[in-house]
Write a structure and sequence with these properties.
This protein has about 300 residues and is an alpha/beta fold. It has one domain (about 1-300). Helix content is about 30%, strand content about 20%. It contains nine helices and eleven strands. A hairpin with a 2-residue loop joins strand 2 and strand 3 (about 35-45). The protein is globular.
Length: about 300
């Protein structure tokens, strides 16, 4: 089993103490996002978990205790974008905090276990195509030697949460042919810095530009890191074009406090505040506690 920690929230930034407690106790509880009262009990024992994929924009709160994960294999999907406080209001300084943290984490784990995410790419009057070309090149230069791959994607304006922030995002039209042109230019910059570039949930084959299909939850990478072949199928519930392996997510929607305007996992700010207030680092659930109306079942 592969644990995803988490597509739904930034566990390293805000819930690292909780996650370390869950590893120590050997299990975590996660609510079904489609049925609030159905809870899965998921083993975190080393013999049950093939690997953990952490998703984060700021792993600093985790860095001092990574030794607690010594019995587990894991890697990071680490998002570094060029947006300011207008888009990512709660993130610390990229140059002062985020980029140094990326380099520190890479130094601890190795460049193959820290994957740079430049996503989502959004286009508006401020963040133009040329802006992205310049910013991508600057970040790629900073991270040269500290990672081996960069994954990109374009904002999906069809998500409910993204639609609700349409006025603030002020997105401009960006047709497929313009997207392909931008990706081809980014791929060239990536190659110049020794990086492979792949794209998340791509509907079009871009291999002629040297662009691969992303596998963010990557069974092949984990197989190589573990030096044994994992028999894990393809994820069934992701977007068309997704190359991810099957995984079990232990996070929850409406719990991330980064406040990014493009976020699809937060769609109710009142719920975010309530869930954050209901967080207990000692609870098996990321927010709140199981009640008498909840049904807990073992996740196989």
């Amino acid at each position: 089993m592969i644990i995803s920690a988490s597509r739904r929230t930034d566990i390293p930034s805000y819930y690292s103490e909780w996650f370390y407690n869950r590893v120590k106790e050997g299990f975590v509880l996660a609510r079904n996002p489609m049925n609030f009262h159905r809870i899965s009990r998921i083993s975190l024992a080393p013999e049950a978990v093939d690997g953990i994929v952490f998703w984060t924009k700021n792993p600093v709160p985790m860095l001092g205790k990574l030794g607690a994960l010594r019995e587990h294999m894991y890697y990071f999907q680490f998002t570094v974008t060029p947006y300011g406080k207008d888009i990512e209001p709660c993130l610390p300084s990229k140059r002062g905090v985020i980029l140094p943290a990326f380099k520190e984490l890479s130094g601890m784990l190795g460049a193959d276990r820290v994957i740079w995410r430049y996503d989502p790419i959004l286009i508006n009057a401020q963040y133009t195509e040329e802006y992205h070309i310049r910013a991508f090149g600057e970040i790629a230069g900073e991270l040269r030697g500290f990672t081996k791959k960069v994954t990109v994607s374009f904002i999906d304006a069809d998500y409910r949460a993204v639609k609700s922030r349409g006025k603030e995002l002020a997105l401009t039209g960006f047709p497929p042919e313009a997207q392909i042109e931008l990706i081809s230019r980014l791929a060239g910059i990536a190659r110049g810095h020794g990086l492979a570039l792949d794209i998340c949930a791509a509907q079009t084959d871009l291999s002629r530009y040297g662009v691969g299909r992303a596998r963010c939850v990557d069974g092949e990478l984990l197989s190589n890191l573990l030096d044994r072949r994992l028999d894990i199928g393809k994820a069934k519930s992701q977007r068309p074009g997704c190359g991810c392996a099957e995984s079990v997510d232990v996070g929850a929607y409406n719990t991330c406090r980064n406040g990014c305007l493009y976020c699809y996992a937060n769609y109710n700010q009142n719920a975010v505040a309530g869930n954050a207030a209901g967080h207990d680092p000692l609870s098996p659930l990321i927010s709140g506690k199981a009640g008498e109306n909840d049904k807990i079942s073992e996740r196989k």
